[in-house]
Amino acid sequence: MNRFNEIKALVDELEVDMEKFYSKGNKTAGTRARKTLQDLKKLSQDIRVDIQSNKKQ
Question: Where are the domains of the chain?
Answer without folding.
Answer: 2-56
